């Protein structure tokens, strides 16, 4: 009888299962391991041993924590997905989709025929088991308690599940407003469901028979019910299995190998000794060297204390400040001289009002004769509620209150850092006003509640936990990452014997690192300021304060009342605003004692937002309503004072056209989705189709329901919300049975702003219709006609020629006439916007009002995208303008530091230049979460405004409508403007132009030119090629993790990974001291395409400026004539040498990767490679190069590699690598993917580098044919393609003749491969070429592909992730995995997904 033992070691639990030959379970169990994996497993095995006796078992280990253990026990290891797939095939073969939730991970596994595909959570742990635990603790229960409550729910609230922190911010107000635990519990489960479906499925619908696996889904029946409810499954499609939490353990037992077996005694014995784990968690230096250092620190911070006075003996006026926070209420009473008479700090216990009443009663009880409360002011989260309840005199935004309090301790304060329980603020002060406010919008790693939770889990009080940290000898380095993932890092350190002290000190460091580098995004801690005041409860912890001083390299001030600074500041504001003889309007003691209030909830029916209102009714008939976004919720008319709101005007002007009735429309209906560039061009399209006799059907204004309509077909979770909405609008049109949908891809927008480098649309706006075409199933099945021609809006001629091609059945004359009418209407709409802008400015001058330009993209006018921010601003009596209503009035001075090549953004720069010239207008920029281009634009707009002393504010918006953060920022801006008006300071206007340092002929003699590394196999041959042309050229060798860290310091953190790598390499080299900074230049390639890569030159210049190295010239290497330098010439000699070098590199790459995995004598392939590299270097640096010699060398290289002895019978899966050019070729960029694949027993296949040049050439030909660009450059490009094909002709012939190699594909073949899937108009980044390469690989027998992209790479959303679904449909054998690379991405996750792809590949080999 053979027995098998499956062990599954998860992130929080250990599971085992023992099976007999008939696959019956003899023993199974499940235990939480609290980081003690060895002991837990040992006790489980002991139990099994006691029950079953000393069996001989064949063991197999799986799970996220199992690899190190498997190596130690000499037990084989299997991928978790493979184990789960095996047990599903055995126990529930009909499964189509399995949803598995674990402690810290969530996965969806799709089974399609023989193909297994897995999606798992990457950088965020929202919606997993630990998230449920976190939420349960908020309602003072545990996971099973939530389950009990959820059984009896009545209504569901929307809660964000992206991050436990956000969910807290959503739940906290609900608790305060009196929502029931039953409803909250069910809403939390619903949030988990939404997160799993939208975050993981990414455009792959969950259909068919669904199995639910993992602990949470096994033990929480209501969570499972929520999934079933949302997926609308019936009885038949739910797969019910016992032991669904043990599936991975059962599967690993089924996969056990026959050649490994141990008796149970041996297994238990193996676990009795300590295990040395090889992982080393990095260590950091101690916080304090010794006791004396600590004493000095305590003494220094003891000085900052506020004067207190005895309330009982005080006479005179007192001033009250109330700070109502999200979880606590703070109250301060201040005397006339600013000394503190009374302070109060308490948590809300679900009702902030009751807490405040308790404290106010206490104050009134203590007030002696002769003391009156002269004025009172509230601030914080519940400011308005307190003001309404107690009729206080003032309410002030919390940032200003904090500034008043900080300035009391240090009048010249320039930075306030406030870390609270779950929020974090960094307030920058300039000229004694709040200049900018940063809040944690996206992630709360590094807030106080996190330390508290941790202390609790180790059975420590927060105070003892903090004390332990002070003298820890080796604090652990936890880096900056999601708090949930920190848990696993801490567990790792515990296994290595880290003490509680080391962990506590490590956490203190990580809180600060997260706050500075992730939330405030300072590249260098010294940027914070000279005089820093820290506050918030978290800084009471000495370890946190000390680690801040160590990391920021400064001495900060921590007031002794750090926790109640908001209330103290509010009291100081009341003191400042008091005028003698005034009476306070605040309720008297008697009235406060009598104050009764009741809270109820209601939904506002005023518009589609359906705001959830909270109504507080007070005794005496007063009521206070919160939760509304506009005045309608309060029963007033919207915008009573008629303040101009151009967002409202723009929507009406764009979309209020009357379409033809069916009987007037001979050509039938055409559907147009109200998305992205339709917010710019709808007047054109409406007029065009109406003139042609179509009835235009426009999808309705966006709302949450429309978003949910399209959620199933969104292929990439990291794209921006405006793009995600497009899926819903198109689906709406299809459901309305509109037979024909028109959604054009506009590559070039009208050239509106003069002096710009180009007038592209953003890559997403250009190509998003391709994603719709490839991912909306109804279009794929042909149920609706969908037309998306690529076109240029440069002039009427180009538009007409594109449309005549798109509508071949309509007479060309009719189309031209319709285009002329449409063009005129588009121009009229544009003129109306400009006129309205000028009118509004005139109105402001007449009425002495201020205005704010709320600047973004045209589609930010969509109320579902801007979440009612324009209405919020008009409610403060300020006019709202759009960027395109004033952009014609401003002209930025050029050249700008950025490459100004996107038309919508050129408007932003023009609007900012207009704003800087006026005193009565300010600018707030709207920035969609995940908008890649804003990494370029936000910095530039900031430069234009701050350069002339205007305040720059940027609001990040995404699908969650939490207006709290926006409100704080807008009010801080308004208060700063008020202060500036009082000070009446003169601003000086500065030019936004930069002075470029040219690279001159003189410099050529003795300057070193540094070039960042991209593809080592090519660049080692290109370096001597440049040197031979008389440039002292050096390719940097520092492409490693450290240079990425340097990059993070010098580049906007929203920029893409390649820019961090490139700038990081350059800056690290310049800072290393190896180079004379006055004799160094930088070179970087520039394509002039529509993605961010063209702006790398600007990123480099900005980094040099930041480091004070502006004297260093930056050379742009381009064929498009974007920038030129007198000392650097791209002449025939250099181009030829570089082409020869690239051709050699391509041959080496092809031959080495093909032969190395199979060599019989290790090292023999690399030896041949090194020998030929030397000869290739000699060839490209020779004085005269001979084409015939080159051809002969190519033939010899191929011949010699072909003859290397290899194991001809060895079969390995072949894996193609495609993707963004730098991440694809740079080992540092893709975590050494080629080496990884070879070590995992696969062969890597890389398409040539020269193909990318051919792609660039071919694009010019397409643009001339389809987009009306110059015919001359198209002819030159054809010549270029001919020359390159001739250059590699000899090698191609030799490769074709050889035994082991295949020749490169012709560029025109790639075009034909790509066409059925994407249009050749996709030319940003790798564009259609990436899709073409994938198809070419599949055709040449390489169906396994890793598609590498930087996290959030815009073109790749469309041509990488966006086409995978369609590729699978057309080529069912394809096995493609898309991997995101990013400084924060987890390598384990990348590795797991690559291994899964490889296991499918190996199965398909057999």
List keywords for this structure.
single chain, 1406 residues, alpha/beta, five-stranded mixed β-sheet, 54 helices, 45% helix
Notes on the structure:
The protein is α/β, with parallel strands linked by helices and 1406 residues long. The protein is 45% helix and 15% strand. Strands 3-2-1-4-10 form a five-stranded mixed β-sheet. The protein has a five-stranded mixed β-sheet with strand order 7-6-5-8-9. Helix 17 packs across helix 19, helix 40 (1057-1071) packs parallel to helix 41 (1096-1106) and helix 43 (1164-1181) runs antiparallel to helix 44 (1187-1202).
Can you tell me the overall shape?
globular
Strand content: 15-25%
Write down how many β-strands occur, each being a DSSP E stretch of 2 or more residues. Answer: 40
- Derived from helix and strand composition plus strand pairing, the structural class reads alpha/beta
Cα-atom Rg, whole angstroms?
Answer: 33 Å
Which residues form runs of ≥5 with pLDDT under 50? Answer: none
Largest sheet: 5 strands, mixed
Q: Overall mean pLDDT score?
A: 87
Helix percent reads: 40-55%
